[in-house]
Recover the amino acids of this structure.
């Protein structure tokens, strides 16, 4: 049995050597038709590295020929399937620019956006790729408004925007936890302006009550009253918008203190 395994291994190695030798000869040769046919076969067999090498050496020869369109598109497809998404997106864009009327132009534009969607990082990291993905999906829906992929593109945009929303809210939450009162207020107000329908609105109103109260407590006397009043204003908004909020009961001790402080200002008039 060991001998059989040994001979099988030797046979496989010999076959690989022969295959490699034929491939190198083909790559260095001048028969572009043979290269083109072999490249397509390698692509179908998912041997993207060899297909790419052949596509690369043939691009100049076939640039003005019908095969050039196929080579350009499949080059992008190879990189996409290899998960080299930055490079794939670049080749998809190049394809759309060169062949805007191609039957594959729509697919190429969509997949260019998908490349950035896939590499869009977690919320703790820089979101440049997320913004690029949103921009490219929006361009796709503008260029192909009747495409059956528009619904998917819009769904992807929603997912990406939710990621940006989560990242921006993480920043607000960080200022709040660090008791950076003014920064928290500014970031919360900006956040609500940017995301008026946010799922975090209830929590934000709760946090702003607490933040304004703490801000007042740590302010000079001339600024305290205004900040207590703003805390109470946010509490009233919370009660109005979310009458069943669990935060209302939790805030009662804080609100009681706020009202007592404001009553003192009235008494001192």
């Amino acid at each position: 049995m060991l001998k059989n395994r040994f001979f099988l291994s030797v046979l496989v190695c010999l076959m690989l050597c022969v295959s490699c030798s034929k491939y190198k000869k083909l790559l260095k040769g001048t028969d572009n038709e043979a290269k083109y046919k072999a490249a397509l076969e390698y692509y179908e067999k998912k041997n993207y590295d060899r297909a790419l090498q052949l596509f690369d050496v043939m691009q100049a020869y076939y640039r003005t020929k019908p095969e050039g369109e196929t080579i350009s598109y499949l080059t992008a497809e190879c990189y996409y399937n290899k998960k080299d998404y930055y490079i794939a997106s670049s080749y998809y864009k190049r394809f759309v620019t060169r062949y805007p009327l191609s039957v594959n132009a729509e697919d190429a534009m969509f997949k260019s956006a998908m490349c950035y969607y896939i590499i869009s990082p977690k919320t703790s990291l820089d979101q440049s790729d997320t913004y690029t993905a949103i921009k490219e999906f929006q361009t796709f829906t503008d260029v192909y408004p009747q495409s059956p992929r528009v619904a998917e593109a819009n769904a992807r945009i929603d997912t990406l925007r939710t990621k940006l929303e989560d990242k921006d809210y993480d920043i607000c939450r960080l200022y709040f936890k660090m008791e950076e009162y003014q920064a928290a207020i500014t970031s919360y107000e900006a956040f609500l302006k940017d995301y008026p329908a946010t799922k975090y609105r209830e929590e934000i109103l709760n946090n702003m009550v607490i933040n304004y109260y703490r801000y007042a407590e740590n302010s000079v006397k001339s600024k305290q009253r205004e900040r207590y009043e703003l805390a109470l204003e946010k509490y009233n908004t919370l009660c109005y918008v979310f009458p069943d909020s669990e935060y209302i009961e939790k805030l009662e001790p804080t609100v009681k203190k706020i009202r007592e402080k404001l009553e003192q200002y009235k008494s001192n008039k």
